[in-house]
Design brief:
Blueprint: H1 2-5, H2 7-23, H3 28-35, H4 39-46, H5 54-63, H6 68-77
Helix pairs in contact: 2-6, 3-4
């Protein structure tokens, strides 16, 4: 499976999205509406169970008030909790 090659990065991205969402005091439901996706999509992303499209990454980044390039950089250079 292609996703297995980047599993760690996918998990780290999900954890970071969750961390930033909680920091902004946004629920999963609110984020899903802002990004025009099902809430289950956000749940799977945050659990590292779903890969993410570039357009959804941009939408999530905008909703969480962070540049997408910074978000990507953080998964490689920081450990989200």
């Amino acid at each position: 499976m292609e996703n297995e090659k980047y599993k760690l990065e996918i998990v780290r991205l999900g954890l970071l999205i969750k961390e930033l969402r909680l920091k902004e005091k946004i629920t999963q439901e609110q984020l899903s509406r802002l990004c025009n996706v099902d809430v289950r999509t956000i749940q799977r992303i945050e659990k590292g169970q779903q890969n993410i499209t570039i357009s959804l990454l941009f939408s999530i980044s905008d909703s969480l008030k962070i540049e997408s390039s910074v978000l990507i950089g953080k998964i490689f250079f920081e450990n989200p909790q």
